[in-house]
Write a structure and sequence with these properties.
heterodimer, A: mainly beta, 11 strands, globular, B: mainly beta, six-stranded mixed sheet, five-stranded antiparallel sheet, 57% strand
């Protein structure tokens, strides 16, 4: 597509529920990144992929968070047993490869109540 | 782990004044990127610097990469109201695939 598409734009979920956030990167972009951004702060790294391979997941806060990109295109970030502290803007970005700048999507605003 | 610090956190200027934001990394970088995020929007890529001492210009914006590749700056000449937003630097350490973002400098411009 023309840009990075994230869905849903907004997600309100009850504590303890699982959520899946989707990212559709720019066609042909090798690298895909997940970041989380709190209000008034910069994006915080979660994980990234080259093609379908997860290269670095050091930013995932705990084992409730996981991500996949099975065919090297669309990626899903899954949060199990959500907690209120998981509430944040989740941003996906893609790039031609890791040496290039990122194109960010509009993000998914997750609210855990 | 790698840390990226930006100063100042906020800058309020009168339209027409200049603006500078500074970025410092705790580790040597292979490259540094700059992004602009408008209120309610997402970060938009502006530029990437790779070489030690590199200077790049985009119209009224001047970007510099320090000689030691641990710091960078963004200077805007004669600010306009369209420059309003938060400017982030993002540094990538050698052999790292990811970039670490600073917390940004938020610029407001009074007409």
């Amino acid at each position: 597509g023309a840009g990075v598409s994230q869905s849903p734009r907004y997600k309100v979920t009850k504590r303890g529920q699982d959520v899946a956030l989707r990212c559709d990167p720019i066609s042909g972009h090798v690298s895909l990144y997940w970041y989380r951004q709190a209000l008034g702060q910069g994006p915080e790294f979660l994980t990234y992929f080259n093609y379908e391979a997860q290269q670095d997941k050091s930013g995932l806060p705990n084992d409730r968070f996981s991500a996949e990109r099975p065919e090297g295109s669309i990626s899903t970030l899954t949060i199990q047993r959500t907690e209120q502290r998981d509430s944040a803007m989740y941003r996906c970005a893609s790039s031609r490869d890791r040496a290039y700048g990122y194109t960010f999507g509009s993000g998914t605003r997750l609210t855990v109540v | 782990g790698q840390q990226v610090m930006q100063i100042p956190q906020y800058q309020h200027v009168q339209e027409g004044e200049d603006f500078t934001t500074y970025c410092n990394s705790s580790t040597t970088l292979s490259n540094i990127q700059w992004y602009k995020q408008r209120p309610g929007g997402h970060p938009v890529f502006l530029i990437q610097l790779v070489k030690s001492g590199e200077v790049k210009k985009q119209k009224r914006l001047t970007f510099q990469f320090g000689e030691a590749k641990k710091n960078s700056s963004l200077h805007i000449t004669a600010t306009q109201t369209t420059d309003v937003g938060t400017y982030f630097c993002a540094g990538r350490s050698t052999n790292a695939g990811k970039s670490t973002f600073g917390d940004g400098t938020t610029l407001t411009v009074k007409p």
